[in-house]
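User:
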Amino acid sequence: MADYSERELWHPTQVVGSRVALRRPRPDDLPGVVRWYRDPEIARLTRYQTRQMTQAEIERFFEVRMLAVDALAYTIVELPDWRQIGFTTFSALDPDNGSVMFHITVGERDAWGRGLGTETTSLMLAHAFERLALHRVGLTVFSYNVRAIRAYEKAGFRIEGRLRDAIMRDGRYFDEVQMGVLANEWLEARYAPEDSLRDRVAADEPVAG
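Assistant: Predicted structure:
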């Protein structure tokens, strides 16, 4: 198990991919987060409540989940201009049992459907399994977010269970889907022959979850 006493080990300043990079959040990221959480579609995909979050609630979320010293959070930026497009976090980090929960929000609508969320997910899973030496990464997603579920499955996540009728939207109840991926599953897929990976396209990718 990794040593979590050194922050640069478990939370590097930045993680750079081919089209996105992850950098530690800064206070000046807040206006973007406020704007995204005021977007009704993002709220529909990520929140149990239908009412709009207040400015104070968003600021509290930003301080606790993104800026806190012990928060394992990143701002997602699009390369090469390092434009802020979203954020991703790990929560419920459990070093004793080697598990963590994954969250992602791609807030800029012009960044949707371009594979940027998919690459972000891949970078975070690589961080979890190769750098932190975790055993399991889990997530939850609402059952009507079919696009995200397909994308998570392509990334290696498997449906593990459901909280039935956990959320109401548009007068109907929907399940909360619980998904997870284990280190050995992800590593085997990551280092599989190239031919077996060609069907992993960016058409379906997580916008929020």
